């Protein structure tokens, strides 16, 4: 059974930092891509960052470039999202997701390109 479990969310003041973790289990993820998405109340789920477990192919949404960093630890089957200089508009539920698609690079922004999802972790940034 595939599981993605996020942790690390919380309440932080604007300008602060948080580090999200996503532990994956239940299959071999070495050929997969992992993405972080977020969904604010009343808005659609949006791509934040993505990375291939095999290395290379790192992408960010324009809104987080220079502030967020995605990384992976293959030995731990874990993907991280380091979030610095957080802004109130970053407030959302953050989800990690795994994609088995060979076309992930082209389709990385699309929710339907991801096969497995975590339960989400709340990030709240106060002004």
């Amino acid at each position: 059974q595939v599981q993605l479990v996020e942790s690390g969310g919380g309440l932080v003041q604007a300008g602060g930092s948080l580090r999200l973790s996503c532990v994956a289990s239940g299959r071999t993820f070495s050929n997969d891509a992992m993405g972080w998405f977020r969904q604010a109340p009343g808005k659609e789920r949006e791509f934040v960052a993505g990375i291939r477990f095999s290395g290379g192919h790192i992408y960010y949404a324009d809104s987080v470039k220079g502030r967020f960093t995605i990384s992976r630890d293959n030995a731990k089957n874990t993907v991280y999202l380091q979030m610095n200089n957080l802004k109130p508009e970053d407030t959302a539920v953050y989800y990690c997701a795994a994609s088995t698609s060979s076309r992930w690079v082209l389709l990385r922004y699309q929710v339907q390109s991801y096969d497995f999802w975590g339960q989400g972790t709340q990030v709240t940034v106060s002004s």
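The chain has one helix and eleven strands. The longest helix spans residues 104-107.
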